[in-house]
C-alpha cells in the first residue's frame, strides 16, 4: 500500500488521517501544534517535525489546511514539501483555496515531474469522521485514478472535473450555495418566529417540499438547540465567500446573492462568532429582531417597537421627478429623532410626501455612507413633521456601522 504524508490535523484533517490509518495505510503526520497528533500516534501514525520531513520517502502527500497562505507555506516554503519531493510522487491538496494557488503549486510540482491534484471536499466534520466525503478533483485523470484507493479510504465519491484548478473553482461555487442556503433557512425561521409560528412545525413543511436542502437537514436542529459547536466554522465560510467573490470579479460575473451573503457573514465575524459553527450566524438575525429563533412571540410583542430617542443632525437629499428624463433636487436639514428595529424617524420642517425616497447623510464624524430611505408615515409636530422611514437596500456591514455609531451617541 502507498505511504502517505498528511499535513494539517484540524477539524477535517484529523479524522481523514485517522481513516487512512484505519484502512491500513502507513501515515506520517505533521501539524504546527503537535498535540493534535497524539491520538493518531496511538493509531500507528509517525510524527514529522516539518512538512519536508513528512514528505520524504512517501508516495503521496495530502494537505488539509485552513487558507492559501498556510498551504503555500507547507508546500512551497523553506521547510515545505517541495524541499524533499521527488519525481513520481503525488501531492493532493484537499484545502479550500483560490484556483490561483492551485495553479501555482501545480506549476511548481510539474517542474519536478510530480503529480498535483487539487481535491477539495464536500462535507464537514461528521462526514469526515464517517469517511463519506466527496472529492472534486482537478488535475490529471490518470493521476486521479491512480489515487482512487487513497480517496476511497476517506470518501465515497470521487469526481474528476478537469485540469488543475477545476476542483478549487467547483468548491468555491459549492460553498457559495451552502452559505446562501444557510441564510435562506435562517431568514425563513426568522419570519415564522416573528409571526408566532412554531418553528418545528414550519420545518416539517420545509422538509417535505421544494424549500428543503441538505443544509436544512444538517443545521436546523443545531439552530433550534443553540448548538454552535463547530462542524464548519463561520470564519472559514467567510474566507471561502471572499475567495468566491474574487473569482466572480475576475469573471466579471454579477453575483448579488454572493455579495449579500458575504456581508452577513462579515457581520457574524465582527460579532465574535468566527470560531463557532456557521449556523451561529442566526444570532445576527436574532439581534435584529430582538427575539430568539424558535421562541414563541405574542402578538403584543410582535407589535412592540423599542424606540431609542436621539437628536442627531442630518442632511437629507430630496429628489423629485419633474418631467420625462429630468429630476430636481435639494438638500434639507433634519434630525434623527429615534430608531427602532424596523426603521428610523426623522424630524424636519420641510414637507415631504409619503412613499418619497430620500438620501440620508450622517454627520462627517460618523464615517457612514449615504443611506436611502422611503417615507412610510408622516405625523405633524407643531411646526415640524415627523417622518417614519424604512431603510432601503441597506448592506449588512452598513447597518452594523450605523448601530455602532448610534450606540456611541447614547
CATH architectural label of the largest domain: 3-Layer(aba) Sandwich
Strand content: 15-25%
CATH superfamily of the largest domain: NAD(P)-binding Rossmann-like Domain
Helix content percent band: 40-55%
Question: Strand order across the biggest sheet?
Answer: 3-2-1-4-5-6
Tell me, briefly, the overall form: elongated
What is the count of distinct domains? 3
Rg is: 27 Å
| Low-pLDDT segments, ≥5 res | 300-306
The biggest sheet, with number of strands, parallel, antiparallel or mixed sense and barrel status, is: 6 strands, parallel
Secondary structure class reads: alpha/beta
**How far apart, in Å, are the first and last alpha carbons?**
67 Å
Number of strands: 15
Give the integer mean of the pLDDT values: 91
Q: What's the CATH topology name of the largest domain? A: Rossmann fold
How is this fold's topology laid out?
Elements: E1 3-7, H1 13-22, E2 26-30, H2 38-42, E3 46-47, H3 51-55, E4 60-63, H4 68-76, E5 90-93, H5 99-110, E6 115-118, E7 121-122, H6 125-130, E8 133-138, H7 141-146, H8 148-152, E9 155-162, H9 166-195, H10 199-207, H11 214-224, H12 234-250, H13 256-270, H14 282-289, H15 299-303, E10 308-323, E11 326-339, E12 344-348, E13 357-361, E14 371-381, E15 384-391, H16 396-409
Parallel strand pairs: 1-2, 1-4, 2-3, 4-5, 5-6, 8-9
Antiparallel strand pairs: 7-8, 10-11, 10-13, 11-12, 12-15, 13-14, 14-15
Domain 3-hydroxyisobutyrate dehydrogenase-like NAD-binding: 165-284
GO molecular function: cyclic-di-GMP binding; NAD binding; NADP binding; oxidoreductase activity
Domain PilZ: 301-407
